[in-house]
UniProtKB/TrEMBL annotation:
Top-rank taxon: Bacteria
Residues covered by the Ketoreductase domain: 6-184
Single GO biological process annotation from the record: monocarboxylic acid metabolic process
Keywords, in A-Z order: Oxidoreductase
Name of protein: Putative 3-oxoacyl-[acyl-carrier-protein] reductase
Family indicated by similarity: Belongs to the short-chain dehydrogenases/reductases (SDR) family.
An MF annotation (GO) of this entry: oxidoreductase activity
InterPro entries in the record: KR_dom, NAD(P)-bd_dom_sf, Sc_DH/Rdtase_CS, SDR, SDR_fam
Residues of the signal peptide: none
Amino acid sequence: MDLKNKVVLVTGSTHGIGAAMAVAFAQAGAKLLLNGRSESLSDELVEQLNQEKADYHYLKADLMKTDLKKFAEDAWDSYGQIDVLVNNAGINRDKLFIGMKEADFDSVINLDLKVPFFLSKWIIKKMNKQRSGVIINMSSIVGMHGNSGQANYAAAKAGLIGLTKTLAREGAMRSIRVNAIAPGMIDTEMTQKLSDRVKENILEQIPLGRLGKASEVAQTAIFLAQNDYLTGQTVVVDGGMTI
Ligand code: NAD
């Protein structure tokens, strides 16, 4: 897919990996539908988008509290099409399993799995008529291998991989491709809140010896959107952590 003038919706794109994706898709010539909970995008992101002369709309919405059907329809109507949906918004609420509360489970499952499920449902309905489209789900190596203290997050991210493979099978006949990205440890707010001791421990497990950059994950999303023969795959971007 040539991304020039294609419309890309990235959820949770105010900062971190989502913001890096916004910039990368803008550089590829795409029009952007950006989403977050804050009133507006940060000055820094706006400056980066302006540098790329990006055409974009900002859709303010807390996806845990929003009517996702209406959100999807409003997003679609912004440009009259959506070619790429990136289900990126995600949270973690880490605790050892024995102390994990129902609320910790529900909030992570809701944003990291249920929101992609329903957003994909409403967008795919429209993509079916368009007879083309790409969905990229932000999973994690934790969804493939598990991780102490992340039972809720691992369940949600593993669920996304199953969802990805199923939607890839169902969407193929209408040229809708669905893939996932499984990052390792990427340097964003999500990982900046980890203690130095935990970070040092993780660094020892990464053969490339550093955390990944949000832009390196964003480049993977561009590759997945552009390559018309890729579907149902989960691409690991982890500096070799899970070799
Ligand atoms: P981040 O915390 O820096 O950004 C998360 C984004 O989601 C933000 O833009 C935030 O505003 C948005 N968001 C959170 N709650 C929302 C809500 N209710 N409604 C709408 N938007 C909401 O995290 P990140 O590191 O950029 O992570 C992006 C995605 O990548 C997530 O799905 C995360 O699970 C996944 N991931 C990240 C890492 C990592 O190491 N950083 C590793 C594996 C997977």
